[in-house]
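Take a look at the protein record below and tell me what you see:
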Amino acid sequence: MQNSLAIAGERTTGAEVRTQNVTAALSVANVVKSSLGPVGLDKMLVDDLGEVTITNDGATILNQLEVEHPAARVLVQLSEMQDKEVGDGTTSVVILAAELLKRANELVKNSIHPTSVMTGYRLAMKESIKYIKDQLIVKTDKLGREIGFQIAKTTLSSKIFGRESDFFANLAIDAMAMVKDVNPDTGKTFYPVKAVNIVKQHGGSAKDSRLLQGYAMFGGRAAQGMPRYIKGAKIALLDIDLRKTKMAMGVSVRLRCMH
């Protein structure tokens, strides 16, 4: 007696499903393609509640879309990862990935095995990285402030506060200059991005943002009578709990002198 496992649904394999996946990826790329570059167009997105979002940022556009196809979802996740890791290039990475899939599908149709196509792509990636490192990389110290400002301004032009790109680009350049450091062993200059902390505060406009020399953290006053501003304050950094601890067996500790 043969045991058979029944699975509900339809199974599609071969060139048909591969073409469907590539078509779905190209459909996602076509949505954001017209928003790429300095002359890119903004998209108006309306959700189920009627809230309108106007943007040309690739990650924002794809997040607002309800993409159900698994292959298309991969491109949406790729855009989200690009936005999280780099902060820019969300549209470019989707268009580039879709074009690579399109060309790969054409190669597979010409009887080239998918494994060979993937091997070729990996080899091309290594050669591209090598060429960029050898020919195109310019050290940060040689760029100067003006070039860094233009790069930051271009990055911010597609964001929500693109109109204030000059203001926030200056903030970003000044912040990175503050955390600039040199490795004593190698002598290389590096900029620890995680050393820059962003504290969000309600009640002001975007241009009320400011850069503080030092460390800023969000915290509220425990009581209304506490001062709002203290000059020359001494700060204690403790790794213990300051709450009163109940001693065992009725033992109590009283502090009479703080010297």
Notes: The first helix runs from residue 15 to 33. The longest strand covers residues 43-46. The two ends are 89 Å apart (CA to CA).
